[in-house]
Predict the 3D structure of the following.
Amino acid sequence: MEHVGTMPKSLYQNWQFAVEINGFDLALFRKASLPKTEFEETTFAPGGSMFDQRVAGRAKFEDVTLEKGILQDGSEDAARDWVRKIVEVNTGVSSLPNDYMRDVELVQYDRTGKETRRWTLHGAWVKALEYDELDGASSENTLEKLTLSYQFWS
């Protein structure tokens, strides 16, 4: 097979993305994992069959992790506010899990900045919030790491 004259294919670039969450400064995100879907395997042995039949069972959606910078002036404290909201619901101050669940958008762009793909994480909430270790010998910026659990994605 001859490939003379074919143009190289344009592939997605990992750095061309955005994370959209209500209350967060979009420019601070530096890393995001993408959704992973896995199905449980259900097996059964119908009468007269020489082998088990396998079909897809319940869907499982793995957590997504996000990393973002933290502004020194404290003007963006959305992750801590989100965690506070979860604590309020779990202690009975606020009423329902819907009070802390949010839709999160993971958006990928092409080289021209045009949106090409979007994942919406429905009913997302902060499963874990952690920070980099403090290190007097480091010149790195402190990062906030969020692990999000969610109901499903579309």
Notes: Helices lie at 78-90. The chain has one domain: 17-39+58-133+140-153.
